[in-house]
Amino acid sequence: MRDRAAELRAWPSRNQVMTEFRVGAPKAKAALAALREAGFDPTNPTATAVVPVLHAVPDLADHAAPSDSPDETDATDGTGTSDVPASPDAQDVPAAASSPVSPVADPGARRPRVPRWPLLLIAAGAFVSIWGGWVGLGELTGFGPIRLLPGIWDEFVINSAITLPIGVEAYAAFAMWAWLAPTSAGVSRTARRFARWSAIGALALGAAGQIAYHLMVAAGVSHAPWPITAFVACLPVVVLGCGAALAHLIHRPGETV
């Protein structure tokens, strides 16, 4: 750059230095300042002592595009805005410094949670009523004590009527969980759709069973009509099929919602 200034017999502008030597604005500015401090006079280059070697100045805008302005004062458009675009690295520095700091949530703070103990009271009352209704309906339709392991353990007797409340109501709760599970649970759309309709059906079936039992008890019926008996006898098989199908759908990969 010293030889170029001597050839021009004048100080080159910062933009000229940037264009000819392919450096950024800070480096060009530092080189010109170093030459001036060394006492170099481009109008009389022979009278100037040898200039020491200039050291490279770190620059964030090495690849900045120079402006067409003839001097360094024209690098701005008069409004204080530079017409020399900075490099991507230079743009990141002020952006990061001026970006607003988002508030950090206190990890120790907890959201207020709705107490769950009232649900235990509700579930206890529903359990007594539902259990009694299904067991009573099962006895009216032929369910009753059976030897579960005949010839092996004859004393092991169980009332098969308990299979109705366990199967129907437990499946309804399981289907409701799959229906209302959060997105992070990974339940596919198909599984949610099946769970929604089967949960509604199981709850409606449970309500219908309670109605049928109480109506027959109020009417003094000791044995349920055959259509009700046939339908109730099929419930364990239907519940098993719905539960297995829903479990397979939940574990099958699919698009979540």
Task: Write a concise keyword list for the protein shown above.
single chain; 257 residues; mainly alpha; two-stranded antiparallel sheet
Shape: rod-shaped
Task: Give the biggest beta sheet.
Answer: 2 strands, antiparallel
Number of strands: 2
Number of domains: 2
Q: Mean pLDDT score, rounded?
A: 77
The ordered string of helix (H) and strand (E) elements is: HHHHHEEHHH
- Structural classification: mainly alpha
- Placed side by side, the strands forming the largest sheet appear as 1-2
Assign a percent range to the helix content: 40-55%
The whole-angstrom Rg is: 43 Å
**Beginning-to-end CA distance, first to last residue:** 65 Å
Which strand-content bin applies to the residues? Answer: under 5%
Uncertain residue ranges: 48-53, 61-84, 86-99
Organism: Pseudonocardia adelaidensis
Protein name: ABC transporter permease
Keywords: Membrane, Transmembrane, Transmembrane helix
Write a brief caption for the model:
By secondary structure, the protein is mainly alpha-helical. Helix content is 53%, strand content 5%.
